[in-house]
Design goal:
The protein is of the alpha/beta class. 22% of the residues lie in helices and 35% in strands. It has a domain of 111 residues. Helix 4 links the parallel strand 8 and strand 9.
Length: 306
């Protein structure tokens, strides 16, 4: 039986579901996209099964996890990963009934069948409302979370949904990715025990926030940033601040000349390119790399050396 056939069989009775669960079949990864029409990706190897929860007749698509989809499109794909870019070599789509299950129940059900170590989800806040209890009841322990909010002026409902997602799912997450165009507080996310935090937004990032954050890797792609602010952060790092940070990458348009970045750091130049080494008060060394090949667009990387 194919993976989709095993899932279909599990719907036939509670006994069938228990039998499938008892097999402990391995699943490489589960990816969940919470958007107007939710999608659940089950990645086996080399097979992927995609569930598209259709919201026909529902204006605006999904607005809560309690809604019941009209039906479900199930696509089985064979993926070729032997080349540089993955490609689909075979794809077949079936239409299933909604099994009288809500969106949240579909997520819980599909995540309960197989033995999987990696769950991740992306949330689009547009028109969708996520309450705290339904999030906790629905999602497994997510390793990776991504949240998108494209409104320059997010509504109170958007902000509340953002806070609910982070409060409900952040305790188990290792990696968080945020795309925020509006002014939403992320201080509580930075203070979580994360391996990586990635933020994409056009506003000027506040590097002072990093001093209280507890992330190992921080990556940001922004419209513009200040070398002066980044220089102040590096100076505080040399005095012992933020000892958990191992990697920092900033992309964007710099507001000052790049030499401002190194002022007062006692940096040692490495090689011919813009690579420098600094050291903190306990002898830990870090490498700073600067690239500005395209006009004023600059990439700065900070890497703690082993």
């Amino acid at each position: 039986m194919g993976h989709h056939e095993i899932i279909a069989y599990s719907f036939s009775s509670n006994k069938s579901l228990s039998l499938v669960q008892s097999l402990g079949l391995p699943l490489k990864k589960v990816r969940i996209k919470m958007e107007e029409r939710p999608r659940i990706y089950l990645h086996f190897r080399p097979i992927s099964v995609l569930f598209k929860l259709r919201m026909d007749g529902i204006v605006g698509g999904m607005t809560s996890l309690y809604q019941i989809p009209s039906d479900v499109d199930v696509t089985v794909q064979t993926i070729d990963n032997s080349r540089m870019f993955r490609r689909v070599t075979n794809s077949t789509t079936f239409t299933w009934s909604n099994q009288e299950k809500s969106i949240g129940e579909w997520i819980r059900y599909l995540c309960s069948i197989f033995r999987c170590a990696s769950y991740e989800a992306r949330f689009d806040l547009f028109n969708t409302r996520f309450d705290l209890q339904s999030l906790r009841n629905t999602f497994p322990k997510l390793r990776r979370i991504a949240i998108d909010c494209f409104d320059v002026e997010p509504s109170e409902e958007d902000i509340q949904s953002f806070q609910n997602i982070s409060r409900a799912l952040l305790p188990h997450a290792e990696n968080v990715e945020l795309f925020l165009e509006g002014n939403i507080s992320i201080q509580h996310i930075g203070m979580a025990n994360l391996k990586q935090l990635e933020i994409e937004y056009p506003r000027n990032p506040n590097f002072d926030d990093l001093l209280t954050w507890n992330v190992e890797r921080f990556i940001t792609d922004t419209e513009h940033f200040s070398f002066r602010d980044l220089n102040r952060f590096f100076k505080l790092w040399t005095k012992g601040s933020n000892p958990r940070l191992k990697y920092l990458a900033v992309d964007g348009e710099a507001l000052e000349d790049w030499n401002v970045l190194l002022k007062g750091l006692k940096a040692e130049k490495v090689g011919k390119r813009k690579k420098y080494t600094i050291q903190n008060c306990v002898g830990i060394r870090a490498r700073i790399r600067i690239r500005n090949d395209i006009d004023t667009f600059v990439t700065v990387k900070f890497i703690v050396l082993k």
